[in-house]
Amino acid sequence: MENQLTKDILKKVRQIEVQTSRLVNDSLAGSYHSVFKGRGMNFDEVREYVPGDDIRSIDWNVTARTGIPHIKKFTEERELTIMLMIDISGSGEFGSTTGSKREMMAELGSILAFSAVRNNDKVGLVLFSDFIELYIPPQKGRTHILRVIREILFFQPQRKETDLKIPLDFVNRVCKRKSVAFLISDFCLPGDFDESLNELQPKLQISNRRHDLITMIITDPREQELPDVGWLTLEDGESGEQVELNTSDPAIRRAYAELAVHRQKNLQRAIRSSGVDLLDLSTGKPYLPALLAFFGARKRRMRR
Question: With the C-alpha atoms ordered 188, 266, 273, 275, is the resulting torsion angle positive or negative?
């Protein structure tokens, strides 16, 4: 049984590798490379000055020694550290379409990991619920990436609840140098939603000052509106709390949808006001067009 389970896991990881590698090769490789910059500039060489060069780049020592103006030439340091913070709390198991929210998070994490390894970047992984369930320090290479993907897909969390402040604090503590940090979650905040959001916002601001923080919010269509199917029992995937609703009542469906819109708008407002990039994704829609559009928007903004 254990050998069969291992084979099934390896097969699934291989499927994800093939699928995401094709997406990266066909669509994302160039976008990823152009959007995310390295940590700074490395000295490359000294060459003779030509008209049009920035005079601030003149190497005065070489110029004085040779009697001919020379400038320092620099190249961008491309190597990055990518940190994937992925929510594996109980609410991620929900899915009303072709897959669950956690499955979509796993595919997104896999695509970002493969994009990173193609660009010789390091990738680290933080899986979290209301504490750090697993941490894999940043490394390079295909073997490392396959381990990251295996853990994203199959790691079994110890707890079901969510605390988004925990991974942000953790990454700030363990990553001494600036990284590109992806926070991938359904943002099902505990307790009073607006109160939890107010507590989260300062953490987003701090993390975004230290790193290039990007949030990816994964939702499901049934979290936005209810179907008309009569009485329905809804259960919170994290607290286990249940509530019965008569979905045939238009007022109930309307109130449910209005609450979902209120939460979504407040969440978007809090994230954007923190200066953090935001990508909204749904299990009911293909994520690749939205991801490409997001990279394109970042690239255009960087050129301004």
Answer: positive
Orientation angle between helical segments 165-174 and 193-210, nearest 10 degrees: 20
Q: How many CB atoms lie within 10 A of CB 133?
A: 21
CB 171 within 8 A of CB 214: no
Q: Which of 54-68, 74-88, 107-121 is predicted least confidently? A: 74-88
H and E: helices and strands count for the chain: 9, 10
Distance in angstroms (rounded) separating the CA atoms of residues 99 and 118:
27
Mean pLDDT computed over 74-83: 69
Please give the pLDDT value at position 186.
Answer: 92
Confidence of residue 39 (pLDDT cuts 50, 70, 90): very low
The answer to whether the beta carbons of residues 84 and 123 sit under 8 Å apart is yes
Please tell me the pTM assigned to this model. Answer: 0.78
User: How many angstroms from the chain centroid is the CA of residue 229?
Assistant: 35
Domains (ranges, CATH) in the chain?
24-34+79-303 (3.40.50.410), 40-77 (no CATH)
